[in-house]
Amino acid sequence: MTHPKKKICDNILEAIGHTPMVRLNRIPAGIVKGTVLVKLETFNPGNSIKDRMALKMIEDAERAGLLKPGGTIIEGTSGNTGMGLAIAAVVKGYKCIFTTTDKQSKEKVDALRAFGAEVIVCPTNVDPEDPRSYYSVSSRLVNEVPNSWKANQYDNLSNAQAHYEQTGPEIWEQTDGRITHLVVGVGTGGTASGTGRYLKERNPKIKVWGIDTYGSVFKKYKETGVFDKNEIYPYITEGIGEDFLPQNVDFDVIDGFEKVTDKDAAVMTRRIAREEGIFGGNSAGAAIAGLLQLKDRFTADDLIVVIFHDHGSRYMAKMFNDEWMREKGFLDVSGLTARDMVASGLSGELLSVEADETVEKAIRLMARHDFSQVSITRDKRLVGSLNETHLYDELLRNPEVRHQPVSSIMLPAFPFVDITTPVELLSTMITPQTPAVLVRDFKLDKTFIITRSDVIRAFV
Ligand SMILES: Cc1ncc(COP(=O)(O)O)c(C=O)c1O
Q1: Ligand 1 lined by 185 (C-beta under 6 Å)
Q2: What gap in Å lies between CA 341 and CA 337, rounded to an integer?
Q3: 458 lines ligand 1 (CB under 6 A)
Q4: Which residue, by CA, sits nearest to atom 14 of ligand 1?
Q5: Strands, DSSP E only, in 198-344?
Q6: Which CATH fold topology does 50-150 show?
Q7: Is 229 considered catalytic here?
Q8: CATH number of the domain at 18-42+163-327, out of 2.40.50.140, 3.40.50.1100, 3.30.300.20, 3.10.580.10?
Q9: Beta bridge mates, 334
Q10: I want to staple 154 with a disulfide (CB 3.0 to 4.6 A). Which of 86, 240, 246, 261 is the partner?
Protein backbone atom coordinates (compact mmCIF):
# COMPACT_ATOMS: atom_id res chain seq x y z
CA MET A 1 0.00 0.00 0.00
CA THR A 2 1.30 3.48 -0.85
CA HIS A 3 2.45 5.59 1.99
CA PRO A 4 -0.04 8.48 1.78
CA LYS A 5 2.79 11.01 2.03
CA LYS A 6 5.21 9.25 -0.35
CA LYS A 7 5.87 11.60 -3.26
CA ILE A 8 7.47 9.15 -5.66
CA CYS A 9 6.59 5.47 -5.89
CA ASP A 10 9.47 3.09 -6.56
CA ASN A 11 7.26 0.97 -8.80
CA ILE A 12 3.61 0.83 -9.89
CA LEU A 13 2.64 -1.54 -7.05
CA GLU A 14 3.27 1.24 -4.56
CA ALA A 15 0.54 3.27 -6.28
CA ILE A 16 -2.12 0.77 -5.15
CA GLY A 17 -4.68 2.01 -2.62
CA HIS A 18 -5.54 5.37 -1.02
CA THR A 19 -8.32 5.86 -3.55
CA PRO A 20 -10.61 8.91 -3.45
CA MET A 21 -14.02 9.08 -1.80
CA VAL A 22 -16.59 11.22 -3.63
CA ARG A 23 -20.11 12.36 -2.70
CA LEU A 24 -22.96 11.35 -5.03
CA ASN A 25 -24.99 14.50 -5.52
CA ARG A 26 -27.75 13.71 -7.99
CA ILE A 27 -28.83 10.07 -8.25
CA PRO A 28 -29.73 9.47 -4.58
CA ALA A 29 -31.15 13.00 -4.05
CA GLY A 30 -34.74 12.92 -2.80
CA ILE A 31 -34.70 9.10 -2.66
CA VAL A 32 -32.05 8.02 -0.16
CA LYS A 33 -31.93 9.92 3.12
CA GLY A 34 -28.41 10.52 4.42
CA THR A 35 -25.11 11.12 2.67
CA VAL A 36 -23.95 8.75 -0.05
CA LEU A 37 -20.20 8.53 -0.70
CA VAL A 38 -18.51 6.32 -3.25
CA LYS A 39 -15.03 4.87 -2.85
CA LEU A 40 -13.52 5.04 -6.32
CA GLU A 41 -11.38 1.95 -6.68
CA THR A 42 -10.95 2.78 -10.37
CA PHE A 43 -8.00 4.90 -9.29
CA ASN A 44 -5.86 1.82 -8.69
CA PRO A 45 -3.17 1.04 -11.34
CA GLY A 46 -5.26 -1.77 -12.88
CA ASN A 47 -8.41 0.39 -12.63
CA SER A 48 -9.99 -1.91 -10.08
CA ILE A 49 -10.08 -2.79 -6.39
CA LYS A 50 -8.61 -6.18 -7.22
CA ASP A 51 -5.07 -4.79 -7.37
CA ARG A 52 -5.13 -4.74 -3.58
CA MET A 53 -5.95 -8.39 -3.01
CA ALA A 54 -3.90 -9.63 -6.00
CA LEU A 55 -0.71 -8.17 -4.53
CA LYS A 56 -1.60 -9.39 -1.04
CA MET A 57 -2.24 -12.96 -2.28
CA ILE A 58 1.11 -12.95 -4.15
CA GLU A 59 3.09 -11.57 -1.22
CA ASP A 60 1.49 -13.98 1.26
CA ALA A 61 2.27 -16.87 -1.12
CA GLU A 62 5.88 -15.70 -1.47
CA ARG A 63 6.23 -15.57 2.32
CA ALA A 64 4.71 -19.05 2.65
CA GLY A 65 7.12 -20.39 0.01
CA LEU A 66 4.24 -21.34 -2.31
CA LEU A 67 5.29 -18.96 -5.08
CA LYS A 68 8.94 -19.16 -5.99
CA PRO A 69 11.14 -16.98 -8.22
CA GLY A 70 10.38 -17.42 -11.93
CA GLY A 71 7.13 -19.22 -11.11
CA THR A 72 3.81 -19.15 -12.97
CA ILE A 73 0.67 -17.65 -11.45
CA ILE A 74 -2.51 -19.48 -12.46
CA GLU A 75 -6.02 -18.21 -11.79
CA GLY A 76 -9.61 -18.44 -12.89
CA THR A 77 -10.46 -14.76 -13.22
CA SER A 78 -13.11 -12.61 -14.82
CA GLY A 79 -10.52 -10.00 -15.58
CA ASN A 80 -10.00 -7.60 -12.71
CA THR A 81 -8.12 -10.00 -10.44
CA GLY A 82 -6.17 -11.10 -13.49
CA MET A 83 -5.21 -7.51 -14.16
CA GLY A 84 -3.99 -7.04 -10.60
CA LEU A 85 -2.03 -10.31 -10.74
CA ALA A 86 -0.63 -9.52 -14.20
CA ILE A 87 0.66 -6.10 -13.12
CA ALA A 88 2.29 -7.52 -10.01
CA ALA A 89 3.73 -10.39 -12.09
CA VAL A 90 5.39 -7.94 -14.50
CA VAL A 91 7.05 -6.07 -11.63
CA LYS A 92 8.02 -9.21 -9.74
CA GLY A 93 9.04 -11.39 -12.73
CA TYR A 94 6.37 -14.13 -12.79
CA LYS A 95 4.46 -15.63 -15.73
CA CYS A 96 0.63 -15.69 -15.72
CA ILE A 97 -1.93 -18.12 -17.17
CA PHE A 98 -5.59 -17.15 -16.66
CA THR A 99 -8.79 -19.01 -17.41
CA THR A 100 -11.94 -16.98 -17.91
CA THR A 101 -15.48 -17.45 -19.29
CA ASP A 102 -16.97 -16.61 -22.66
CA LYS A 103 -19.36 -14.23 -20.81
CA GLN A 104 -16.61 -11.74 -20.04
CA SER A 105 -16.03 -8.54 -22.01
CA LYS A 106 -13.52 -9.03 -24.82
CA GLU A 107 -11.82 -5.83 -23.65
CA LYS A 108 -11.08 -7.45 -20.30
CA VAL A 109 -9.40 -10.45 -21.93
CA ASP A 110 -7.40 -8.25 -24.34
CA ALA A 111 -6.26 -6.08 -21.44
CA LEU A 112 -4.82 -9.13 -19.65
CA ARG A 113 -2.98 -10.13 -22.81
CA ALA A 114 -1.57 -6.58 -22.97
CA PHE A 115 0.43 -7.42 -19.82
CA GLY A 116 1.79 -10.60 -21.38
CA ALA A 117 -0.60 -13.00 -19.69
CA GLU A 118 -1.87 -16.14 -21.42
CA VAL A 119 -5.70 -16.28 -21.32
CA ILE A 120 -7.82 -19.41 -21.89
CA VAL A 121 -11.54 -18.74 -22.50
CA CYS A 122 -13.92 -21.45 -21.14
CA PRO A 123 -17.73 -21.95 -21.43
CA THR A 124 -19.97 -20.15 -18.86
CA ASN A 125 -22.99 -22.43 -18.64
CA VAL A 126 -21.40 -25.48 -17.04
CA ASP A 127 -21.20 -26.58 -13.40
CA PRO A 128 -18.09 -25.44 -11.49
CA GLU A 129 -17.18 -29.16 -11.18
CA ASP A 130 -17.44 -29.72 -14.96
CA PRO A 131 -13.95 -30.38 -16.42
CA ARG A 132 -14.55 -27.58 -18.98
CA SER A 133 -15.36 -24.92 -16.36
CA TYR A 134 -12.87 -22.16 -15.80
CA TYR A 135 -12.45 -23.33 -12.21
CA SER A 136 -11.60 -26.90 -13.29
CA VAL A 137 -9.26 -25.89 -16.12
CA SER A 138 -7.21 -23.68 -13.81
CA SER A 139 -7.03 -26.48 -11.19
CA ARG A 140 -5.80 -28.91 -13.86
CA LEU A 141 -3.16 -26.47 -15.12
CA VAL A 142 -1.68 -26.01 -11.68
CA ASN A 143 -0.90 -29.73 -11.63
CA GLU A 144 0.57 -29.69 -15.12
CA VAL A 145 2.64 -26.49 -15.18
CA PRO A 146 5.91 -26.82 -13.24
CA ASN A 147 6.66 -24.26 -10.49
CA SER A 148 3.10 -22.90 -10.63
CA TRP A 149 0.80 -21.53 -7.95
CA LYS A 150 -2.95 -21.02 -8.09
CA ALA A 151 -4.03 -17.79 -6.44
CA ASN A 152 -7.58 -19.10 -5.84
CA GLN A 153 -9.22 -15.76 -5.08
CA TYR A 154 -12.45 -17.43 -3.93
CA ASP A 155 -11.03 -19.42 -1.05
CA ASN A 156 -7.67 -17.70 -0.45
CA LEU A 157 -8.31 -15.67 2.68
CA SER A 158 -5.48 -13.25 1.83
CA ASN A 159 -8.16 -11.72 -0.42
CA ALA A 160 -10.47 -10.57 2.40
CA GLN A 161 -7.42 -9.82 4.55
CA ALA A 162 -6.20 -7.21 2.00
CA HIS A 163 -9.44 -5.30 2.51
CA TYR A 164 -9.25 -5.73 6.28
CA GLU A 165 -5.78 -4.16 6.20
CA GLN A 166 -6.38 -1.46 3.56
CA THR A 167 -9.90 -0.74 2.32
CA GLY A 168 -11.49 -0.83 5.78
CA PRO A 169 -8.98 1.49 7.49
CA GLU A 170 -9.04 3.91 4.52
CA ILE A 171 -12.84 4.21 4.68
CA TRP A 172 -12.73 4.63 8.46
CA GLU A 173 -10.17 7.45 8.14
CA GLN A 174 -11.82 9.15 5.16
CA THR A 175 -15.16 9.34 6.99
CA ASP A 176 -13.57 10.18 10.37
CA GLY A 177 -15.28 7.08 11.72
CA ARG A 178 -18.73 8.44 10.82
CA ILE A 179 -19.65 5.68 8.34
CA THR A 180 -22.94 3.94 9.28
CA HIS A 181 -23.48 1.66 6.26
CA LEU A 182 -21.30 -0.11 3.69
CA VAL A 183 -22.98 -1.14 0.42
CA VAL A 184 -20.87 -3.39 -1.78
CA GLY A 185 -21.22 -5.92 -4.59
CA VAL A 186 -20.27 -9.46 -3.59
CA GLY A 187 -18.39 -11.83 -5.88
CA THR A 188 -15.58 -13.67 -4.12
CA GLY A 189 -16.78 -11.82 -1.02
CA GLY A 190 -13.31 -10.48 -0.22
CA THR A 191 -14.23 -6.79 -0.41
CA ALA A 192 -17.43 -6.98 1.66
CA SER A 193 -16.07 -9.41 4.26
CA GLY A 194 -12.64 -7.86 4.84
CA THR A 195 -13.75 -4.22 4.73
CA GLY A 196 -16.87 -5.01 6.75
CA ARG A 197 -14.96 -6.96 9.40
CA TYR A 198 -12.56 -4.06 9.99
CA LEU A 199 -15.33 -1.47 10.15
CA LYS A 200 -17.46 -3.55 12.51
CA GLU A 201 -14.49 -4.01 14.82
CA ARG A 202 -14.23 -0.22 15.02
CA ASN A 203 -18.00 0.25 15.39
CA PRO A 204 -20.23 -2.83 15.71
CA LYS A 205 -23.29 -0.75 14.77
CA ILE A 206 -22.13 -0.37 11.16
CA LYS A 207 -24.35 -2.31 8.77
CA VAL A 208 -22.94 -4.14 5.73
CA TRP A 209 -25.23 -4.69 2.73
CA GLY A 210 -24.07 -7.10 0.03
CA ILE A 211 -25.35 -6.52 -3.50
CA ASP A 212 -26.25 -9.75 -5.28
CA THR A 213 -27.70 -10.65 -8.69
CA TYR A 214 -30.70 -12.72 -9.73
CA GLY A 215 -29.20 -16.07 -10.72
CA SER A 216 -26.85 -16.19 -7.69
CA VAL A 217 -27.12 -18.16 -4.45
CA PHE A 218 -26.00 -15.62 -1.82
CA LYS A 219 -29.22 -13.93 -0.73
CA LYS A 220 -31.23 -17.10 -0.23
CA TYR A 221 -28.34 -18.78 1.59
CA LYS A 222 -28.01 -15.82 3.97
CA GLU A 223 -31.74 -15.71 4.67
CA THR A 224 -32.51 -19.43 4.92
CA GLY A 225 -29.21 -21.30 5.26
CA VAL A 226 -30.24 -23.27 2.16
CA PHE A 227 -27.89 -23.59 -0.81
CA ASP A 228 -30.55 -23.72 -3.51
CA LYS A 229 -29.43 -24.78 -7.00
CA ASN A 230 -32.80 -23.56 -8.30
CA GLU A 231 -31.57 -20.02 -7.73
CA ILE A 232 -28.79 -20.53 -10.28
CA TYR A 233 -29.18 -19.45 -13.89
CA PRO A 234 -27.12 -17.38 -16.32
CA TYR A 235 -27.11 -13.63 -15.79
CA ILE A 236 -25.46 -10.68 -17.46
CA THR A 237 -24.20 -8.53 -14.58
CA GLU A 238 -20.43 -8.88 -14.27
CA GLY A 239 -18.27 -9.34 -11.18
CA ILE A 240 -20.93 -10.12 -8.58
CA GLY A 241 -23.05 -13.13 -7.59
CA GLU A 242 -21.88 -16.76 -7.60
CA ASP A 243 -23.19 -20.27 -8.10
CA PHE A 244 -21.25 -21.61 -5.09
CA LEU A 245 -20.19 -20.32 -1.67
CA PRO A 246 -16.61 -18.94 -1.71
CA GLN A 247 -14.78 -19.04 1.61
CA ASN A 248 -14.16 -15.31 1.35
CA VAL A 249 -17.88 -14.61 1.82
CA ASP A 250 -18.32 -14.14 5.57
CA PHE A 251 -22.06 -14.40 6.10
CA ASP A 252 -21.67 -13.17 9.69
CA VAL A 253 -20.15 -9.87 8.57
CA ILE A 254 -22.67 -9.22 5.76
CA ASP A 255 -25.96 -8.25 7.42
CA GLY A 256 -28.14 -8.71 4.36
CA PHE A 257 -28.13 -9.11 0.58
CA GLU A 258 -30.13 -7.13 -1.96
CA LYS A 259 -30.62 -8.54 -5.47
CA VAL A 260 -30.56 -6.28 -8.52
CA THR A 261 -31.76 -7.25 -12.01
CA ASP A 262 -29.39 -7.20 -14.99
CA LYS A 263 -31.44 -4.42 -16.56
CA ASP A 264 -31.46 -2.18 -13.48
CA ALA A 265 -27.70 -2.66 -13.04
CA ALA A 266 -26.99 -1.88 -16.71
CA VAL A 267 -29.24 1.19 -16.82
CA MET A 268 -27.74 2.56 -13.60
CA THR A 269 -24.17 1.97 -14.84
CA ARG A 270 -24.97 4.42 -17.66
CA ARG A 271 -26.74 6.91 -15.38
CA ILE A 272 -23.72 7.20 -13.05
CA ALA A 273 -21.57 8.41 -15.95
CA ARG A 274 -24.18 10.84 -17.27
CA GLU A 275 -25.47 12.21 -13.98
CA GLU A 276 -22.44 12.12 -11.68
CA GLY A 277 -19.56 12.23 -14.19
CA ILE A 278 -18.10 9.05 -12.70
CA PHE A 279 -17.07 6.26 -15.06
CA GLY A 280 -17.81 3.18 -12.99
CA GLY A 281 -18.22 -0.44 -14.06
CA ASN A 282 -21.25 -2.69 -14.10
CA SER A 283 -21.07 -3.68 -10.42
CA ALA A 284 -21.05 0.03 -9.49
CA GLY A 285 -24.36 0.29 -11.35
CA ALA A 286 -25.68 -2.75 -9.49
CA ALA A 287 -24.55 -1.29 -6.15
CA ILE A 288 -26.26 2.07 -6.71
CA ALA A 289 -29.43 0.41 -8.06
CA GLY A 290 -29.38 -1.78 -4.91
CA LEU A 291 -28.85 1.29 -2.72
CA LEU A 292 -31.98 2.91 -4.17
CA GLN A 293 -33.95 -0.31 -3.58
CA LEU A 294 -32.80 -0.22 0.06
CA LYS A 295 -33.83 3.43 0.50
CA ASP A 296 -36.20 2.79 3.41
CA ARG A 297 -33.35 1.39 5.51
CA PHE A 298 -31.55 4.75 5.87
CA THR A 299 -32.14 7.91 7.92
CA ALA A 300 -31.00 11.50 7.35
CA ASP A 301 -28.04 11.13 9.73
CA ASP A 302 -26.61 8.09 7.97
CA LEU A 303 -23.34 8.09 6.10
CA ILE A 304 -23.40 5.39 3.45
CA VAL A 305 -20.26 4.30 1.61
CA VAL A 306 -20.65 2.42 -1.67
CA ILE A 307 -17.61 0.77 -3.25
CA PHE A 308 -17.08 1.14 -7.01
CA HIS A 309 -15.00 -1.86 -7.95
CA ASP A 310 -13.93 -1.12 -11.51
CA HIS A 311 -13.94 1.24 -14.48
CA GLY A 312 -16.52 1.90 -17.19
CA SER A 313 -13.97 1.54 -19.98
CA ARG A 314 -14.14 -2.24 -19.50
CA TYR A 315 -17.79 -2.19 -20.61
CA MET A 316 -17.60 -0.17 -23.83
CA ALA A 317 -18.95 -3.05 -25.93
CA LYS A 318 -21.71 -3.76 -23.42
CA MET A 319 -23.47 -1.34 -21.04
CA PHE A 320 -22.02 1.70 -22.83
CA ASN A 321 -23.03 0.43 -26.27
CA ASP A 322 -26.60 1.39 -27.32
CA GLU A 323 -26.92 -1.49 -29.77
CA TRP A 324 -25.98 -4.05 -27.11
CA MET A 325 -28.38 -2.45 -24.63
CA ARG A 326 -31.18 -2.56 -27.19
CA GLU A 327 -30.42 -6.18 -28.13
CA LYS A 328 -30.67 -7.20 -24.47
CA GLY A 329 -33.95 -5.31 -24.08
CA PHE A 330 -32.44 -2.89 -21.57
CA LEU A 331 -33.42 0.32 -23.38
CA ASP A 332 -37.07 1.18 -22.93
CA VAL A 333 -39.29 0.73 -25.97
CA SER A 334 -43.07 1.10 -25.72
CA GLY A 335 -45.61 -1.63 -26.53
CA LEU A 336 -46.28 -5.21 -25.43
CA THR A 337 -43.53 -6.85 -23.31
CA ALA A 338 -42.50 -10.36 -22.27
CA ARG A 339 -44.24 -9.65 -18.95
CA ASP A 340 -47.54 -9.11 -20.84
CA MET A 341 -47.02 -12.44 -22.63
CA VAL A 342 -46.48 -14.23 -19.32
CA ALA A 343 -49.49 -12.52 -17.73
CA SER A 344 -51.83 -13.36 -20.63
CA GLY A 345 -50.72 -17.01 -20.72
CA LEU A 346 -49.12 -16.62 -24.16
CA SER A 347 -45.90 -18.16 -22.86
CA GLY A 348 -45.77 -21.48 -21.08
CA GLU A 349 -43.97 -22.48 -17.91
CA LEU A 350 -40.57 -23.99 -18.66
CA LEU A 351 -40.55 -27.73 -19.33
CA SER A 352 -37.30 -29.56 -18.59
CA VAL A 353 -35.66 -33.00 -18.44
CA GLU A 354 -32.57 -34.01 -16.51
CA ALA A 355 -29.39 -34.46 -18.59
CA ASP A 356 -29.06 -38.20 -17.89
CA GLU A 357 -32.65 -39.04 -18.91
CA THR A 358 -33.02 -40.70 -22.32
CA VAL A 359 -33.82 -38.89 -25.55
CA GLU A 360 -36.96 -41.03 -25.75
CA LYS A 361 -38.19 -39.63 -22.45
CA ALA A 362 -37.64 -36.08 -23.72
CA ILE A 363 -39.60 -36.88 -26.90
CA ARG A 364 -42.49 -38.30 -24.90
CA LEU A 365 -42.58 -35.26 -22.64
CA MET A 366 -42.57 -32.89 -25.60
CA ALA A 367 -45.35 -34.85 -27.30
CA ARG A 368 -47.48 -34.96 -24.15
CA HIS A 369 -47.32 -31.19 -23.72
CA ASP A 370 -47.29 -30.43 -27.46
CA PHE A 371 -43.98 -28.53 -27.03
CA SER A 372 -41.39 -28.09 -29.78
CA GLN A 373 -38.52 -27.60 -27.30
CA VAL A 374 -37.40 -28.44 -23.78
CA SER A 375 -34.67 -27.29 -21.46
CA ILE A 376 -32.09 -29.73 -20.12
CA THR A 377 -31.10 -29.57 -16.46
CA ARG A 378 -28.40 -31.23 -14.41
CA ASP A 379 -29.21 -31.33 -10.74
CA LYS A 380 -32.00 -28.84 -11.55
CA ARG A 381 -29.50 -26.39 -13.05
CA LEU A 382 -30.12 -25.32 -16.67
CA VAL A 383 -27.33 -26.75 -18.83
CA GLY A 384 -28.78 -27.15 -22.33
CA SER A 385 -31.77 -27.42 -24.63
CA LEU A 386 -33.39 -29.58 -27.27
CA ASN A 387 -35.70 -28.60 -30.12
CA GLU A 388 -37.78 -30.53 -32.64
CA THR A 389 -35.63 -29.70 -35.67
CA HIS A 390 -32.42 -30.79 -33.98
CA LEU A 391 -34.07 -33.95 -32.60
CA TYR A 392 -35.34 -34.81 -36.06
CA ASP A 393 -31.83 -34.44 -37.58
CA GLU A 394 -30.25 -36.53 -34.82
CA LEU A 395 -32.85 -39.33 -35.10
CA LEU A 396 -32.50 -39.47 -38.87
CA ARG A 397 -28.75 -39.77 -38.52
CA ASN A 398 -28.96 -42.47 -35.86
CA PRO A 399 -32.34 -43.85 -34.67
CA GLU A 400 -30.55 -45.52 -31.73
CA VAL A 401 -29.86 -42.11 -30.26
CA ARG A 402 -33.25 -42.35 -28.56
CA HIS A 403 -31.79 -44.71 -25.96
CA GLN A 404 -28.92 -42.34 -25.14
CA PRO A 405 -28.94 -39.61 -22.50
CA VAL A 406 -30.20 -36.23 -23.73
CA SER A 407 -26.86 -34.72 -22.74
CA SER A 408 -25.27 -36.55 -25.71
CA ILE A 409 -27.17 -34.45 -28.24
CA MET A 410 -28.20 -31.32 -26.33
CA LEU A 411 -27.67 -27.80 -27.65
CA PRO A 412 -26.66 -24.74 -25.57
CA ALA A 413 -29.22 -23.54 -23.01
CA PHE A 414 -31.81 -20.99 -24.15
CA PRO A 415 -30.75 -17.46 -23.19
CA PHE A 416 -32.54 -15.49 -20.46
CA VAL A 417 -34.03 -12.12 -21.35
CA ASP A 418 -35.35 -9.46 -19.01
CA ILE A 419 -39.09 -9.72 -18.34
CA THR A 420 -39.53 -6.10 -19.48
CA THR A 421 -38.19 -6.88 -23.00
CA PRO A 422 -40.59 -5.60 -25.69
CA VAL A 423 -42.16 -8.26 -27.91
CA GLU A 424 -40.81 -6.41 -30.95
CA LEU A 425 -37.27 -7.12 -29.71
CA LEU A 426 -38.07 -10.73 -28.80
CA SER A 427 -38.88 -11.33 -32.44
CA THR A 428 -35.31 -10.39 -33.42
CA MET A 429 -33.78 -12.48 -30.61
CA ILE A 430 -35.64 -15.68 -31.55
CA THR A 431 -33.85 -17.14 -34.58
CA PRO A 432 -33.42 -20.62 -36.10
CA GLN A 433 -30.29 -20.99 -33.92
CA THR A 434 -32.11 -19.70 -30.82
CA PRO A 435 -35.68 -20.99 -31.19
CA ALA A 436 -36.74 -19.83 -27.72
CA VAL A 437 -35.81 -17.48 -24.88
CA LEU A 438 -36.47 -17.75 -21.16
CA VAL A 439 -37.87 -15.15 -18.79
CA ARG A 440 -37.89 -15.29 -15.03
CA ASP A 441 -40.82 -13.87 -13.12
CA PHE A 442 -39.23 -13.08 -9.76
CA LYS A 443 -42.57 -12.38 -8.10
CA LEU A 444 -43.96 -15.78 -9.06
CA ASP A 445 -40.51 -17.40 -8.71
CA LYS A 446 -41.11 -19.19 -12.01
CA THR A 447 -39.31 -19.44 -15.34
CA PHE A 448 -41.26 -19.18 -18.60
CA ILE A 449 -40.32 -20.06 -22.15
CA ILE A 450 -41.19 -17.88 -25.14
CA THR A 451 -41.02 -19.47 -28.59
CA ARG A 452 -41.45 -18.23 -32.13
CA SER A 453 -45.08 -19.34 -32.26
CA ASP A 454 -45.78 -17.54 -28.94
CA VAL A 455 -44.42 -14.31 -30.44
CA ILE A 456 -46.51 -14.78 -33.59
CA ARG A 457 -49.64 -15.25 -31.45
CA ALA A 458 -48.76 -12.07 -29.52
CA PHE A 459 -48.99 -10.05 -32.74
CA VAL A 460 -52.58 -11.12 -33.55
C1 LIG B 1 -16.27 -5.60 -11.33
C2 LIG B 1 -16.34 -6.32 -10.03
N3 LIG B 1 -17.22 -5.91 -9.12
C4 LIG B 1 -17.36 -6.55 -7.95
C5 LIG B 1 -16.61 -7.65 -7.62
C6 LIG B 1 -16.84 -8.34 -6.30
O7 LIG B 1 -15.79 -8.15 -5.40
P8 LIG B 1 -15.39 -9.33 -4.42
O9 LIG B 1 -14.84 -10.43 -5.26
O10 LIG B 1 -14.35 -8.75 -3.53
O11 LIG B 1 -16.59 -9.76 -3.68
C12 LIG B 1 -15.68 -8.12 -8.55
C13 LIG B 1 -14.92 -9.34 -8.28
O14 LIG B 1 -14.58 -10.12 -9.14
C15 LIG B 1 -15.52 -7.43 -9.77
O16 LIG B 1 -14.65 -7.85 -10.70
Answers
A1: yes
A2: 7
A3: no
A4: 239
A5: 207-213, 256-260, 303-308
A6: Rossmann fold (3.40.50)
A7: no
A8: 3.40.50.1100
A9: none
A10: 246
